[in-house]
Amino acid sequence: MKKIIIFASGSGSNAENIITYFKKNQIAKVVSVFTNNATAKVIERAKNHQIPVEIFSKNELLEHNILQKIQEIDPDLIVLAGFLLKFPENIIEQYPHKIINIHPALLPNYGGKGMYGMHIHRAIVNNKEKETGISIHYVNEHYDEGAIIFQANVTLTDEDTPETVAEKIHELEQKHFPEIIQTILEQQIV
Ligand code: GAR
Predict the structure, then answer these.
(1) Residues 90/67, Cβ–Cβ less than 8 Å
(2) CB of residue 11 inside a 6 A radius of ligand 1
(3) N or C end of the chain: smaller count of CB under 10 Å?
(4) At what angle do helices 13-23 and 41-48 cross, to 10 degrees?
């Protein structure tokens, strides 16, 4: 059974969806949720599924504490699901091709520092984009620049608002993210 660690900073709807999905199969389990936000809803969601939660500060992430905690778990995949801090290089170096992120836009567009959640959906509507989508990619030392693994898009109309765009993105994320995680785990050689 492979082990997944999820990092999340907010609501955790993706985290919960992944937890639920892997409860139903024998390939992998979510073994821990890590968060930098002591009031994040993801904490309650994880606890409802009896998943241990690790809460840490930005400093703890940058020092060696969190790397050590991850190494104790020895995960097969680290999944960033709405994790809003920059992921530290000392962890990235230790887990090549084992850290992925979901981004609520079609990278390389609408990526980079400050581009997250509703900020993106507002920019998409302001720019009258005809489509948007999701990107699942490996994490490297630059925000949203690691190799893209998967993208899915959705058409927008003149009637779309940031809120309806968020709903469309949410649907794509719920549908695809767990399946892509499963595919990555199945293809892992080590
Ligand atoms: C998701 O839409 C995810 O793609 C986005 O944050 C949301 C988290 O929702 N991530 C980013 O914007 C990262 N740059 P959730 O907490 O309900 O899963």
Answers:
(1) yes
(2) yes
(3) C
(4) 10
Tell how far the Cα of 81 is from the centroid of ligand 1, in angstroms. 6
Nearest-atom number in ligand 1 for the CA of 169 is 2
Nearest of 160, 153, 167 to residue 126 by alpha carbon: 160
* Centroid of ligand 1 to alpha carbon of 91 (angstroms): 21
What is the chain's pLDDT, residue by residue, as a tens digit (190 residues)? 999 999 999 999 999 999 999 999 889 999 999 999 999 999 999 999 999 999 999 999 988 789 999 999 999 999 999 999 999 999 999 999 999 999 999 999 999 988 999 999 999 999 999 999 999 999 998 888 999 999 999 999 999 999 999 999 999 999 999 999 999 999 986 5
Output the CA 2–ligand 1 centroid distance in Å. 24
Q: Assess whether 119 carries a catalytic annotation.
A: no
* Domains defined for the chain, CATH in brackets: 2-187 (3.40.50.170)
13 CB within 6 A, ligand 1: yes
Contact yes or no for 28/51 (Cβ under 8 A): no
| 169 touches ligand 1 (CB under 6 Å) | yes
